[in-house]
């Protein structure tokens, strides 16, 4: 899908990959396409009205899997104007193993074309100029070389100055970063460039030593974020910034597959906010989507 002359309600930025997920039949695998920011874009497209366009910015290769991936994104109704092509690289791949609903991943992504998504500063600025909301994650930053992170940070700051809203999910994956210190510094940096940060409490406790959601909220607000909503794996969701509080009593379920739980929550939350609902209503909307997603296998579940 192309929409070169129209604005975008949301532009998601990151790495889309070939996904292999275990099927219900032992020894059989399902091939699909996913990636944390693509997952959120995919759910947003299903939750927002047609007039609110959702776009995706990444880089792919020229091979068959890359072409099929771009076709998949376009067929989902997501604008592909800002999907670039790298003649020397291909898309990455990952496989999901499940054990009682919990996931583990094996990745083949070291030469992913998406590592060059911030290589062209002018193209990045043109893409960001079209977007009302720019959505990215810690994985988006982690896969980039240091020069790409600098280009991305500069473009985000300029877009925010022009009035765009930046939304950031830290989505901490230590294996993607050079070292733990760089990871913490860069996650904090990109959170500080954001209007909304959507961290997960387990990640923040493990990698920043936060004792609870209040510590996470205070740390990201101090870094420069405007609003923080702390996900808690289905538990009470705390939030801070101009709006402050906690949403409790959320329905719990035994998950079939937790893949994309946070990504789908983010989509439900953002879709609700873009349609004028308040923070608590948006949290409940995000939780309702995530609850449905963890009840099925794979990252992308029809909702």
Describe the structure.
With 303 residues, the protein is of the alpha/beta class. The chain has helices at 36-47, 64-75, 121-129, 138-142, 146-161, 180-192, 201-208, 213-223, 261-274, 279-293; strands at residues 8-13, 17-22, 29-34, 54-60, 83-85, 93-99, 102-108, 131-137, 165-169, 196-197, 227-230, 237-240, 245-247. The chain has a 9-stranded mixed sheet with strand order 5-4-1-8-9-10-11-12-13, sandwiched between helices. Strands 3-2-6-7 form a 4-stranded mixed sheet. The longest helix has 16 residues, at 146-161. The protein is globular, with a radius of gyration of 18 Å. One of its GO terms (cellular component) is cytosol. It holds the Pfam family PfkB.
Short description:
The chain has helices spanning 36-47, 64-75, 121-129, 138-142, 146-161, 180-192, 201-208, 213-223, 261-274, 279-293; strands at residues 8-13, 17-22, 29-34, 54-60, 83-85, 93-99, 102-108, 131-137, 165-169, 196-197, 227-230, 237-240, 245-247.
What is the element layout, followed by pairings?
Blueprint: E1 8-13, E2 17-22, E3 29-34, H1 36-47, E4 54-60, H2 64-75, E5 83-85, E6 93-99, E7 102-108, H3 121-129, E8 131-137, H4 138-142, H5 146-161, E9 165-169, H6 180-192, E10 196-197, H7 201-208, H8 213-223, E11 227-230, E12 237-240, E13 245-247, H9 261-274, H10 279-293
Parallel strand pairs: 1-4, 1-8, 2-6, 4-5, 8-9, 9-10, 10-11
Antiparallel strand pairs: 2-3, 6-7, 11-12, 12-13
Family: Belongs to the carbohydrate kinase PfkB family.
Keywords: Kinase, Transferase
GO cellular component, one term: cytosol
